[in-house]
Write a structure and sequence with these properties.
The protein is an alpha/beta fold. It has 12 helices and 17 strands. The protein is elongated and about 90 Å long.
């Protein structure tokens, strides 16, 4: 599939144009300069054809090791993978020295570059962009308003001519092909989420550094691992709700929570040098509430001195605070050195298998009969609750229906936890949430009297 990279200095409207091209609000948009820091990718459809669009970080001058320098390298990496570049300038501000510097660098890339003068809502801005844009040496600027859609059809027509063979590029997914496993990587700021993903894909794809909160958007990266397709989703760090005040951080938090809801498995990255903090457990509870499989990655394991004590402390905290997620796999690793990172994806696939597991009805009811015999349900108003039958309603997560002679309120949570623990032990459902629905009614499989 052909690829188009959108480039330019901060706050010229790259993300707004990106959202307009792919037809949905994928990138966070705000008046704050430098909102986008990592590459975002989406698909723009042109009739029967389609092409990939990359939204890049704002390009600013600065030393290579600085945040601005690292963001510039991420943007240039996006252009290196693209077939066509789109340089966006602000028509209202006119051509700036930063625009001229970026254009000079792009001319050396030997790739087709379209010049787009965004924010051309007024004729004055459009005329100014047309007059000044020629100085960048990239041809005639195209007047566009990404916010309102003005000029976007002309831009698409120009892209179509440059990507004329897009329809013939790339294999099409075979019918019935297995969908990629959607894996969200979450955690507190500066826990090492982006570094871990870079290590998994063996590429410096995501912006990393000592500054907390570098990731703002949720970034999806495809990965092929041992014949299985995985969509890795890097997310912004989640802080305590009381500390989230700025509008931009609220948008990032919202994007993270959306990624968590859309995931199948969630990797909670924890700074092993700080053990499990309250915020880590809060995030784990969110995963439980959404019914997702959970794997805990204990990052920075190379800095831990007493590994046995730290592992015991983590497992104790999980058992005490997350009784409904007993047996959550914990993988100690180091994203910096790569130690034990190869153990993470096998643990993820095992957790996904449990999360997607179905228990045969006959085996389920044999287990239920033994569980009821060992520990009968409690008495309600002098009469014992009778659970007559059980069936699995669905997987993802495993959800079971209990048919009883009393309504759901008659079975206390403690007894449902007893059943859940037994199910985990009998059918290897450790580390995934289990849900119960209690229905009052007759056993549908019981023989009916003959009339």
């Amino acid at each position: 599939m052909r690829t188009v990279a959108i480039l330019g200095r901060p706050n010229v409207g790259k993300s707004t144009l990106f959202n307009r091209l792919i037809g949905r609000r994928r990138a966070i948009v705000d008046d704050t300069p430098g909102v986008t820091r990592d590459r975002l990718e989406g698909i723009c459809k042109l009739g029967a054809a389609e092409f990939r669009v990359i939204d890049t970080a704002g390009m600013e001058a600065g030393p290579e090791e600085s945040l601005a320098g690292r963001m510039r390298q991420v943007a240039l990496q996006g252009l290196a993978e693209a077939d066509v570049g789109v340089l966006v300038i602000d028509a209202r501000a006119g051509v700036t020295p930063a625009d001229a510097e970026i254009a000079a660098g792009l001319r050396r890339q030997k790739k087709p570059i379209l010049l787009v003068a965004n924010k051309s809502e007024s004729r004055t801005a459009e005329a100014q962009a047309a007059a000044e844009g020629w100085s960048l040496g990239l041809g005639e600027p195209m007047a566009v308003s990404a916010e309102h859609g003005d000029g976007v059809p002309d831009l698409l027509a120009a892209l179509r001519s440059l990507l004329a063979d897009a329809e013939a590029e790339g294999p099409t997914p075979a019918e019935g092909e297995e969908r990629p496993l959607r894996l969200a990587v979450v955690g507190r700021p500066n826990a090492g989420k982006s570094s871990l993903i870079n290590r998994l894909i063996a590429e410096d794809r995501l912006l990393t550094g000592p500054e907390p909160g570098l990731t703002r958007d949720s970034v999806t990266i495809p990965l092929a691992w041992q014949g299985r397709r995985v969509d890795l989703v890097d997310t912004a760090g989640l802080r305590k709700r009381a500390r989230v005040e700025a509008k931009l951080e609220k948008l990032s938090t919202s994007a993270t929570l959306h990624a968590l809801k859309m995931a199948e498995v969630v990797v909670l990255v924890v700074d092993a040098t700080m053990a499990l903090e309250r915020q880590d457990l809060t995030i784990a509870r969110l995963v439980l509430q959404e019914g997702r499989a959970l794997v805990v990655a204990l990052n920075k394991w190379d800095l831990v001195q007493d590994t046995a004590a730290v592992m015991a402390e983590v497992r104790h905290a999980l058992e005490r605070q997350l009784a409904d997620l007993k047996g959550v796999p914990c993988v100690p690793l180091s994203a910096l050195t790569g130690r034990h990172v190869d153990k993470l994806l096998p643990a993820v696939l095992e957790a996904h298998g449990r999360w997607d597991k179905r228990v045969p009805t006959s085996a389920l009811n044999r287990w239920l009969e033994a569980a009821l015999e060992r520990h009968p349900p409690p008495l309600v108003q002098g009469r014992r609750v009778k659970i007559r039958y059980a069936t699995q309603a669905k997987a993802r997560p495993p959800t079971f229906v209990l048919f009883a002679n009393k309504p759901a309120e008659a079975l206390p949570e403690s007894y449902l936890r007893y059943l859940a623990t037994g199910l985990r032990d009998a059918f290897d459902l450790w580390g995934v949430p289990i849900r119960f629905h209690v229905r009052q009614g007759k056993n549908p499989y019981a023989p009916t009297p003959q009339g």
